[in-house]
Amino acid sequence: MSAPESAFDDLIHPRQRLMLCAALTVAEEVRFDLLAKALEVSPPTLSKHVARLAEAGYVSTRPDKLDSRRLWVRLTDTGTEAYRGHVQALRELTSE
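^ that's the sequence the OP posted. Answer follows.
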């Protein structure tokens, strides 16, 4: 795997979106309610952040096959690339 291209991303940078992307890089897919709990944010707050990231193509969502009221969230390939580039830009910014 090659090193990500460094690129600061204003869409990912807000704390809760950065935490959301970080959580989704660890798990392939996370149920919305569990993600809200893990990030310690309310469902409406998480919903707004997921919507912004989805508009940019960084995350995708799907309903649960057994319970359509439950939603699953995943980082797309585009989102993974943007997140890794953002983290690389932060590393470069903070390195001595």
